[in-house]
Design goal:
The protein has nine helices and three strands; from the N terminus they run H-E-E-E-H-H-H-H-H-H-H-H. The chain has a domain of 88 residues. It is elongated, with a radius of gyration of 18 Å. The protein has a three-stranded antiparallel sheet with strand order 1-2-3. It is mainly alpha-helical. Helix 5 packs parallel to helix 7, helix 6 packs antiparallel against helix 9 and helix 8 packs antiparallel against helix 9. Helices cover 61% and strands 4% of the residues.
Protein backbone atom coordinates (compact mmCIF):
# COMPACT_ATOMS: atom_id res chain seq x y z
CA UNK A 1 0.00 0.00 0.00
CA UNK A 2 1.12 3.55 -0.56
CA UNK A 3 0.95 6.10 2.25
CA UNK A 4 -2.39 7.53 1.11
CA UNK A 5 -3.97 4.07 1.12
CA UNK A 6 -2.51 3.29 4.54
CA UNK A 7 -3.80 6.59 5.92
CA UNK A 8 -7.29 5.87 4.60
CA UNK A 9 -7.26 2.38 6.12
CA UNK A 10 -6.20 3.84 9.48
CA UNK A 11 -9.01 6.41 9.22
CA UNK A 12 -11.61 3.75 8.46
CA UNK A 13 -10.24 1.63 11.32
CA UNK A 14 -10.55 4.53 13.76
CA UNK A 15 -14.29 4.62 13.11
CA UNK A 16 -14.85 0.88 12.75
CA UNK A 17 -13.16 0.06 16.06
CA UNK A 18 -14.93 2.86 17.95
CA UNK A 19 -11.85 4.98 18.65
CA UNK A 20 -13.60 7.81 16.84
CA UNK A 21 -17.34 8.28 17.20
CA UNK A 22 -20.12 7.68 14.70
CA UNK A 23 -20.26 9.64 11.47
CA UNK A 24 -23.64 11.23 12.25
CA UNK A 25 -22.78 12.56 15.70
CA UNK A 26 -23.83 16.15 16.45
CA UNK A 27 -23.38 17.65 19.91
CA UNK A 28 -22.83 21.08 21.40
CA UNK A 29 -19.20 21.91 21.97
CA UNK A 30 -18.11 22.18 25.58
CA UNK A 31 -16.13 25.27 24.57
CA UNK A 32 -19.07 27.34 23.31
CA UNK A 33 -22.34 27.45 21.41
CA UNK A 34 -21.23 25.75 18.25
CA UNK A 35 -21.74 22.28 16.83
CA UNK A 36 -19.24 19.52 17.35
CA UNK A 37 -19.77 17.18 14.41
CA UNK A 38 -18.98 13.84 12.93
CA UNK A 39 -16.79 10.96 13.97
CA UNK A 40 -13.97 13.18 15.19
CA UNK A 41 -16.18 15.86 16.73
CA UNK A 42 -14.92 18.60 14.42
CA UNK A 43 -16.12 21.94 15.68
CA UNK A 44 -17.95 24.40 13.48
CA UNK A 45 -18.40 28.18 13.46
CA UNK A 46 -16.08 30.86 12.18
CA UNK A 47 -14.31 28.63 9.67
CA UNK A 48 -13.48 25.84 12.12
CA UNK A 49 -12.74 22.30 11.01
CA UNK A 50 -16.44 21.46 11.24
CA UNK A 51 -17.22 24.14 8.68
CA UNK A 52 -14.43 22.83 6.45
CA UNK A 53 -15.96 19.34 6.72
CA UNK A 54 -19.39 20.71 5.78
CA UNK A 55 -17.86 22.35 2.70
CA UNK A 56 -17.06 18.90 1.28
CA UNK A 57 -20.68 17.72 1.52
CA UNK A 58 -23.46 18.80 -0.84
CA UNK A 59 -25.87 20.85 1.25
CA UNK A 60 -23.37 21.17 4.09
CA UNK A 61 -22.85 24.90 3.61
CA UNK A 62 -26.41 25.40 4.89
CA UNK A 63 -25.18 24.41 8.36
CA UNK A 64 -21.81 26.14 8.21
CA UNK A 65 -21.09 29.08 10.48
CA UNK A 66 -24.24 28.49 12.55
CA UNK A 67 -24.50 28.10 16.30
CA UNK A 68 -25.61 24.85 17.83
CA UNK A 69 -28.56 26.66 19.43
CA UNK A 70 -29.69 27.96 16.05
CA UNK A 71 -29.59 24.51 14.45
CA UNK A 72 -31.35 22.98 17.46
CA UNK A 73 -34.05 25.71 17.61
CA UNK A 74 -34.74 25.21 13.90
CA UNK A 75 -35.27 21.49 14.56
CA UNK A 76 -32.45 20.60 12.17
CA UNK A 77 -30.14 18.47 14.33
CA UNK A 78 -31.51 15.25 12.85
CA UNK A 79 -31.11 16.50 9.27
CA UNK A 80 -27.52 17.59 9.98
CA UNK A 81 -26.83 14.19 11.53
CA UNK A 82 -28.28 12.45 8.46
CA UNK A 83 -26.15 14.61 6.17
CA UNK A 84 -23.00 13.72 8.10
CA UNK A 85 -23.96 10.03 8.07
CA UNK A 86 -24.69 10.02 4.33
CA UNK A 87 -22.34 8.27 1.93
CA UNK A 88 -20.85 11.61 0.92
CA UNK A 89 -20.60 12.73 4.56
CA UNK A 90 -18.78 9.55 5.53
CA UNK A 91 -16.41 9.89 2.58
CA UNK A 92 -15.61 13.49 3.56
CA UNK A 93 -14.91 12.49 7.15
CA UNK A 94 -12.71 9.58 6.06
CA UNK A 95 -10.80 11.96 3.77
CA UNK A 96 -10.13 14.46 6.57
CA UNK A 97 -9.18 11.72 9.04
CA UNK A 98 -6.92 10.15 6.41
CA UNK A 99 -5.18 13.49 5.85
CA UNK A 100 -4.54 13.75 9.59
CA UNK A 101 -3.21 10.17 9.59
CA UNK A 102 -0.97 10.94 6.63
CA UNK A 103 0.49 14.09 8.15
CA UNK A 104 0.63 13.18 11.83
CA UNK A 105 0.60 9.43 12.35
CA UNK A 106 2.47 7.86 9.44
CA UNK A 107 5.72 9.80 9.98
CA UNK A 108 5.74 8.75 13.65
CA UNK A 109 4.98 5.13 12.81
CA UNK A 110 7.71 4.97 10.18
CA UNK A 111 10.11 6.64 12.61
CA UNK A 112 9.29 3.88 15.11
CA UNK A 113 10.46 1.29 12.56
CA UNK A 114 7.17 -0.07 11.25
CA UNK A 115 7.26 -1.40 7.70
CA UNK A 116 4.46 -4.01 7.62
CA UNK A 117 1.19 -2.52 6.29
CA UNK A 118 -1.03 -4.35 8.77
CA UNK A 119 1.18 -3.31 11.67
CA UNK A 120 1.14 0.29 10.50
CA UNK A 121 -2.66 0.25 10.34
CA UNK A 122 -2.90 -1.44 13.75
CA UNK A 123 -0.57 1.05 15.41
CA UNK A 124 -2.15 3.99 13.58
CA UNK A 125 -5.48 3.17 15.17
CA UNK A 126 -3.80 3.77 18.54
CA UNK A 127 -2.36 7.14 17.56
CA UNK A 128 -5.26 9.42 18.59
CA UNK A 129 -4.29 8.78 22.22
CA UNK A 130 -0.91 10.36 21.33
CA UNK A 131 1.10 9.57 18.22
CA UNK A 132 4.27 10.53 20.09
CA UNK A 133 3.53 8.12 22.96
CA UNK A 134 2.73 5.34 20.46
CA UNK A 135 5.98 6.03 18.58
CA UNK A 136 8.09 5.92 21.75
CA UNK A 137 6.26 2.80 22.96
CA UNK A 138 7.07 1.02 19.70
CA UNK A 139 10.66 2.25 19.57
CA UNK A 140 11.36 1.03 23.09
CA UNK A 141 9.83 -2.36 22.39
CA UNK A 142 11.89 -2.70 19.21
CA UNK A 143 15.03 -1.78 21.18
CA UNK A 144 14.17 -4.61 23.59
CA UNK A 145 14.07 -7.08 20.70
CA UNK A 146 10.34 -7.33 20.03
CA UNK A 147 9.31 -7.76 16.41
CA UNK A 148 7.01 -4.77 16.05
CA UNK A 149 6.34 -5.77 12.44
CA UNK A 150 4.44 -8.84 13.59
CA UNK A 151 0.71 -8.25 14.11
CA UNK A 152 0.30 -10.81 16.90
CA UNK A 153 3.28 -9.34 18.76
CA UNK A 154 1.78 -5.86 18.48
CA UNK A 155 -1.55 -7.05 19.85
CA UNK A 156 0.20 -8.64 22.80
CA UNK A 157 2.35 -5.58 23.48
CA UNK A 158 -0.57 -3.13 23.36
CA UNK A 159 -2.76 -5.52 25.36
CA UNK A 160 -0.24 -6.27 28.08
CA UNK A 161 2.07 -3.24 28.28
CA UNK A 162 0.55 -0.10 26.80
CA UNK A 163 -1.43 0.99 29.88
CA UNK A 164 1.69 0.66 32.02
CA UNK A 165 3.89 2.49 29.51
CA UNK A 166 1.33 5.29 29.08
CA UNK A 167 1.08 5.61 32.89
CA UNK A 168 -2.64 4.93 32.97
CA UNK A 169 -2.88 1.48 34.50
CA UNK A 170 -6.43 2.20 35.66
CA UNK A 171 -7.44 1.74 32.00
CA UNK A 172 -5.57 -1.54 31.52
CA UNK A 173 -8.72 -3.61 31.00
CA UNK A 174 -10.07 -1.16 28.42
CA UNK A 175 -6.75 -1.08 26.60
CA UNK A 176 -6.66 -4.88 26.58
CA UNK A 177 -10.13 -4.96 25.00
CA UNK A 178 -9.09 -2.30 22.51
CA UNK A 179 -5.94 -4.27 21.63
CA UNK A 180 -7.94 -7.39 20.90
CA UNK A 181 -10.69 -5.55 18.98
CA UNK A 182 -8.13 -3.70 16.89
CA UNK A 183 -6.35 -6.96 16.14
CA UNK A 184 -9.62 -8.58 15.04
CA UNK A 185 -10.37 -5.62 12.77
CA UNK A 186 -6.92 -5.42 11.17
CA UNK A 187 -6.49 -9.15 10.71
CA UNK A 188 -9.79 -9.20 8.77
CA UNK A 189 -8.72 -6.59 6.18
Amino acid sequence: MNDEQLALEIAKGLVATGVEGPYGCVTCSTAGDYPSMGCSQWEGLDGGRGDILLGYIDGGSYYANRTYSDIEAAGELDSLSALLDSEQGQAAQNMILAQDCLELYLPSLRNAGLTDDRCIIYSGIWCPTSHFVVMRFLQRRAERGYDINNLETLRDLFRDEYAIAADCEEYAEGYANRANNTYDYVSAI
